[in-house]
Amino acid sequence: MTGAAPPRLLDAKGRIKRKLRVSLTDRCNLRCHYCMPEHPTWLPRAQLMDNAELQRLVGLFVRTLGITELRLTGGEPLLRPDVPELVRMLAALRSEGLQRIALTSNGVRLAPVAAALRDAGLDDLNISIDAITPETFTALTRGQLAPVLEGIASAKAAGLPIKLNCVVIKNANEAEVLPLTQWAKARGLPLRFIEFMPLDARKSWSSEKVVSEDEIVALLSSHYQLKPLPRASDPAQYYSVDEDYRIGVISTISKPFCASCDRLRLDARGQLYTCLFSATATDLLTPLRAGASDAELLALIRTAVWHKPAGYAEQPGYVERPITMHHLGG
Ligand code: SAM
Ligand code: SF4
């Protein structure tokens, strides 16, 4: 017996969309200098999608447009007190095609909610950790490392699959690449390094501050035997490390993967960004609040996605955008 073909959401370059990232808030309890403005002003809460609005939009993406993977991000998503409840609501979409619900967090508020997130149906968790030396962590984030380590331990104890992510910036935390790898490897925790992208609110990015995939591999090769692994659909290139561990590198800047991009992004105000580097967005929340039908919202989404830009590969460097990383989520 053959069932109906799964729905497909395509852009004009033939790229099928399968992943949606949803920012739950622009607020954050850290001030990572590669992300946040020095003095952030937060969006008024009334402008943010509530759980019912978010569920309606995500439902359309899953049910009618073929999105199978969802990642909740921010700002810091765990500043929203009701995330386990939201995950539970979204998990109801599994019967309509949703395969994975993931979350990206800075880990500061994770320890008390890790078990509740697992019970609600969260499939996996990315935790940002840019240094294993407390002083370097504080210099980068203006926060403390201890609660993040506690969050990681709680997530592990709760049985939640975790990945650690570290943005590497020249003359800031390059020296952390090796000790962080040693720390994560000793604990069997998956680790990925991310190249610094020109999405920081302070506009301090320059190509000289990027530590490229090749440089990260060279740093690790002084200590370990690294071998590239066959490329999968993940944005990271993976390397085996001494045959018994592996690390990933997300090289958006030095080796952009725009040609195979299958992602879309919804900010906390319900604005659809079809590319992390888009200069424009499509407002879905205003029409939703004005009573738009599902068909009208779907038409807006399909048109926006069809016109998805080629991406960073075609326009490298800074892009003037209405928002920065802490609004949209990584
Ligand atoms: N607050 C959560 C966190 O830090 O994990 C979620 C939101 S944060 C914007 C998502 C990811 O984007 C984090 O892994 C963060 O390190 C990354 N990120 C932020 N600004 C970046 C930049 N300019 N270049 C590369 N990655 C960045
Ligand atoms: Fe906050 Fe995450 Fe941005 Fe750091 S990277 S300031 S934790 S949103």
- Please identify which CATH superfamily of the domain at 19-162 and 258-328 we are dealing with: Aldolase class I
The largest sheet is: 12 strands, mixed
Q: Helical amount among residues, as a percent range?
A: 25-40%
User: Gyration radius, to the nearest Å?
Assistant: 19 Å
List the uncertain runs: none
Q: Ligands in the structure?
A: S-adenosylmethionine, iron/sulfur cluster
Decide which structural class fits the backbone.
Answer: alpha/beta
The 3D shape can be described as globular
List how many beta strands DSSP finds: 12
Corresponding CATH architecture of the domain at 19-162 and 258-328: Alpha-Beta Barrel
Describe, in plain words, how this protein is organized in 3D.
By secondary structure, this protein is α/β, with parallel strands linked by helices. The protein has a domain at 19-162 and 258-328: Aldolase class I (TIM Barrel), CATH 3.20.20. Helices cover 27% and strands 17% of the residues. The protein contains 10 helices and 12 strands. The chain has helices spanning 51-63, 83-91, 114-120, 134-141, 146-157, 177-186, 213-221, 285-289, 294-306, 325-328, and strands spanning 19-23, 69-73, 100-105, 124-128, 162-168, 191-195, 226-228, 237-241, 245-250, 263-266, 271-273, 282-283. Strands 7-8-9-6-5-4-3-2-1-10-11-12 form a 12-stranded mixed β-sheet. A hairpin with a 3-residue loop joins β8 (237-241) and β9 (245-250). α2 runs parallel beside α3 (114-120). The chain is globular. The mean pLDDT is 93. The site of iron/sulfur cluster has 14 residues, from α10.
